[in-house]
Amino acid sequence: MTAKLLSTGFDPQVGLDKAKIELMTISTFISSMCFDIIHKFDDPKNPILPIPTAGTDGRHIIYDPNFFEKLTQPQRIGLIAHEVWHVAWGHLTRRGDRDPKIWNYAGDYVINLMLTQQGFILPETDLIDSQYRNMSTEEVYNKLKEKQDAGGKLPQSNMIGDILDKKLTEEEKKDLDDKVADMVSRAKVNTELNSPKEWGNMPSDVKRMFEELLEPQLNWKQILMQYLNEFIKDDYSWQRPNKRYLPNLYLPTQYSPTIGDVAIAIDTSGSISDEELKEILSEVEGIRTTFNPTSLRMFGADSCIHDEYEVDRYTDICSLKFGGGGGTSFHPVLDKLKKDPPRLLIYFTDLWAEHITDEPGFDTMWICNSDHEEQGIGHTIYIK
Ligand SMILES: [Zn+2]
Question: pLDDT digits over 202-239, tens only?
């Protein structure tokens, strides 16, 4: 859906883009989440939103264009952050059988308190109350429910109704939870890496929530992200010039770490399905944006190398083609890389091939989609 110019001449898309750009300078976490969420404008003639403000279904954030126009730039930023936190906090799937309206109030209280504490400016709302400080959404919900059951009145606010919670089946819920966990995991790594201070300042209950969200259901993508994060941190000193030996050099304070030269190999012997290949390629996209490799080489190989790509920041990774279908051997790729070693090779394979015991001279990570035993070298992450 493309936003149309309003009759006032306001272009909502331009307003949104400006807010998103400024948000990048304010919060790495929220900006990173923003990249994974689709933002669109509602059609006031045929609205999806129950109230013409904004709302999220966990995958999209939908804005009413007229409401959006009336906000100041800082309020627009605050609104985006507010909606992103509904997603990050799992408000779409955590409600259970609770009353949707009160749940929405509770979520808003928790988010608004945190955001105002961090200096964000929000659209006008009466859902800020310091008595709910340091409470989880569930705790605030219980307080509000008690109040309502005792005949008390709940406040009114424009923002209510912005959790667009359709009745999800268990499967849809799980899908959404997985998607959100992936987004949060990527945003967390991005933040730890690029704005350690922002990560340090995250409220402890938020960090705890993320741990709970990520720990029980770590999938291979999250394990890989964490591994790469550790990998880059371990070598931090190696990448950063030692100040003592460079007395006359100006050292920039803003330092963007890189993971160095990365090679990716995909076993195209037929053991990887099209669906898996799609997932792998989108994960490689994620590695490129998050870990900023100095160079990124990609290989498709079975018993020989069929495809080889030098990926730069303009390459559309998801459209690269990988052919093959023969037997599997790891030697073609390993031998080729020995001549021009990367820092890290990530090999997607079912591991059904010769057992490798010779250290190739670079780190190797096997992402395995079978239950085959580990290789003789490197680390293994199992997809299933
Ligand atoms: Zn809300």
Answer: 887 788 777 776 665 567 888 888 888 877 776 544 44
- In terms of domains, do 276 and 196 share one? no
Cα 110 to middle of ligand 1, angstroms: 9
CA angle, residues 88, 91, 93, in degrees to nearest 5: 105
**212 alpha carbon to ligand 1 midpoint, in Å?**
22
Number of domains making up the chain? 2
Please tell me what DSSP assigns to residue 163: B
CB 105 within 8 A of CB 154: yes
How far does residue 187's CA lie from ligand 1's centre (Å)? Answer: 20
At 50-100, the pLDDT tens digits run: 889 999 999 999 999 999 999 999 999 999 999 999 999 989 988 888 999
Distance CA 54, CA 67 (A): 8
Distance 98 CA to ligand 1 centre (A): 16
| Contact status, residue 86 vs residue 106, Cβ threshold 8 Å | no
Q: Which pair of structure tokens corresponds to residue 92?
A: 């779409």
CB atoms within 10 A of CB 257: 16
Angle between helices 73-88 and 100-117 (to 10 degrees): 120
What are φ and ψ of residue 123, in 5° steps? -60, 160
Q: How far apart are CA 56 and CA 83, in angstroms?
A: 6
CA of 104 to the centre of ligand 1 (A): 6
Is 189 found in the same domain as 299? no
User: 277 and 144 in one domain?
Assistant: no
Give residue 56 CA to ligand 1 midpoint distance, Å. Answer: 9
* Tokens matching residue 130: 């310091």
Q: Which residues, listed in sequence order, are joined to residue 263 by a DSSP beta bridge?
A: 297, 345
Query: CB under 8 Å, gap of 24 or more: what pairs does 170-174 form?
Result: 173/93
d(CA 46, CA 134): 39
CA–centroid distance, residue 75 to ligand 1 (Å) = 14
> Residue 206 is part of which domain span?
12-221
- In this structure, is residue 238 part of a structural domain? no
Same domain, 213 and 318: no
Distance CA(359)–CA(376), nearest Å, equals 9
Residues 30 and 121 in one domain: yes
| Structure-token pair, residue 375 | 């290789």
Residues 170, 299, single domain; the answer is no
Please tell me the distance between residue 333's alpha carbon and the centre of ligand 1 in angstroms: 50
Cα 38 from Cα 62, distance rounded (Å): 8
